[in-house]
Amino acid sequence: MLVSILTLSSAHTIAIDPIRFSISTSATEVLVNEEFEIKIKADLLNIPTNTVYVFESARAFRLKVVLPEGFRQTGGSYNDFIEGELSGSKPSAFYTIKGKFVTAERAGVFQLLRSHKSANSASNFVEVDRLSFGMTEGLQEGAANARIALAGTISYVPYLSMSALRSITDTATSVFITDQGGAGIFKHNPSSTKADDGALTIITSGKRYERVYSGPVNVEWFGVVGDGATDNTAALQAMLDRADISSIYFPKPAVSYRIKRLNLRSNKTITLDEGTVIEGLGTLGAEERMIMMNNVQNISIKGTNVVFKDQKAKYTTGEQRHIFAMLGVTNVTIEGVAANNSGGDGFYIGASSTQKYSENVKLLNVSADNNRRQGLSIVSGKNIEVVSSVFSNSNGTAPNAGIDIEPNNPDEFLEGIRITNPTTRNNAGPGIVILIDDFKGTNRVVDITITNHNDDGSVYGAYVSRATGAIAGTITFQNPVWKNNRHNGFCASNYSSNACTVQVNDPTVIDCNVAGSTHAVFGSALLVYREASAIGDANVGNVHIIRPKVHDTRSVRKIVSAFAFEDISKKGTVKNCSLIDPVTLEGLDVLKYVHFAVLDNFALSDKHEKLTFDIAQLNRTLTYGFYKRIFHNATSTGTRTISLNGLPANYPEITFEVRNGQILRLIPTINDNILPISVNKGKYIQSNVVGNKITLRKTTTNSWQVKEMIGTWTVQP
């Protein structure tokens, strides 16, 4: 007796299985007791990651075959509850059943069932394919036309290509599209009026099929390809322009997604797979930005090790071709993204024509490298948060900074600027530059806090300048580390004493002045000054350096002075400044820790006694660059003199202490006196009584004033 073998469609549940299972045989007719072979195959499908699966850990499985009456297995590799797992490196698995019919059966079915990897006889199994047979010859369908019955319906889900669906008339209410990049389930929606976009909606034979999905829309569904060559601008912009697409997903491309420029719309969430690269074409116009956000709200761009980059070498002029431009935006978060090789800035935060600030912007774990102007510009913002981000190798046009905080106009804002754990490296300009002159004479209140800044190798670690009038507010650097800077670790240049307070708390400067200036001002670690040709307010200053540490660890030391305060232009004084309790001054010339010129209202303390000096066995002459808070003679073995040599009015006060029984003598210049104890010019004062001390202040060009005196100091006869 002959038994005919044929394949029919497989039953399936409402969720898709990432593995296509099939059971088949090459036999078309077999005799009773004639052995034949049945093949079982498992193929891993290219299923989108947001597809709902039948089982958790759906790439692993156990199989069971329900055998019909009259069939006996005689061999093969299959056994009930056989276990397997597929992956990219193992996309298929094969099993065989050898057996025979021992009785003549009029009809029956071999049912192929699958369950999860830990299944046993008590677990739930799902039928994934079947092999039917009957007494008469039947039609054998190929595996490509296998159908999976939907639970609770009498319709089927065919596996089809997009072109196949468009070219046939099918009764199925759901289909699974198999196209690379566009795979997924589509369901017929008779009430839909949506246009055919070839991605979310397909119209064929008057029927609309809509993609069944949850979560973000995959850019590959819209034909976006990451081959490193195709211009995806039009396809991506079409997605961004659609109000019905709020969440967009970029899978990691084979090479990169190429674009010219994109305009982001409000209420978009963009997620990029780890390692994704989006690359510009290098064709931006002088005022075009690669990713533009103008007057938009509620934008999120997130990834891990994601890179946006342009073709900087093609931009030899201009400075506005930014990677990310945020103009008048609200509620924008960018996380885990690099912005490299632009013709302008990596990131730009500023005003639009209708909103004069960007608000609630967060840059989290971002980076910017090798941009033409700078890594990040903050031009106008309220509540701007930058956390654990890196800005490096800015070069091409000024200011060449890692971070530039600088308004363009007096009607902009710098409020609630919080930069935490920033790293800047090897920028042709400063690591961080702050230029706020546009706010002078306005009611703007500057509020900037920079915490744990670490710069290595930029021209300056931090540079504050161009404030030539009254400005309210506070700029705070908390616990920065500035090292290997070409010039100073910190520099405040032409910064008005009436401008907002600059507080530098617990700074550390290491091995600065790489350029090797021998000038006490320009070779200093921390500098407050006005250059010779600068104009501006009457006085510079309002900079306060608290608990600083300065180290020069090089075999050839280059830091000339730890601190320098001077108005080189001589237009005014350095006013309203502080130097509080230096902690470490390592590897410096002990005679050149501090360079002072004309100072007014200067606060100084030295509880760690880093500015205390034992004159020992040498006579000393005070100069601009040889300031100490306290001089004493603790180890002197004879009379020692200190010449008060031509220092200017308003030079900071100095204390002289007698710490052993030797004479300590203070000698003014021939034209100076020491008031009130020595009214005659050129007369020295001296003491050899242990515990005696005197504090002097240069109050006028030719007069020292006694501020405090303990014990008797004898005046030269």
Automatic annotation (TrEMBL):
<feature type="domain" description="Rhamnogalacturonase A/B/Epimerase-like pectate lyase">
    <location>
        <begin position="217"/>
        <end position="404"/>
    </location>
</feature>
<protein>
    <recommendedName>
        <fullName>Rhamnogalacturonase A/B/Epimerase-like pectate lyase domain-containing protein</fullName>
    </recommendedName>
</protein>
<dbReference type="InterPro" id="IPR012334">
    <property type="entry name" value="Pectin_lyas_fold"/>
</dbReference>
<dbReference type="InterPro" id="IPR006626">
    <property type="entry name" value="PbH1"/>
</dbReference>
<dbReference type="InterPro" id="IPR011050">
    <property type="entry name" value="Pectin_lyase_fold/virulence"/>
</dbReference>
<dbReference type="Pfam" id="PF12708">
    <property type="entry name" value="Pect-lyase_RHGA_epim"/>
</dbReference>
<dbReference type="InterPro" id="IPR024535">
    <property type="entry name" value="RHGA/B-epi-like_pectate_lyase"/>
</dbReference>
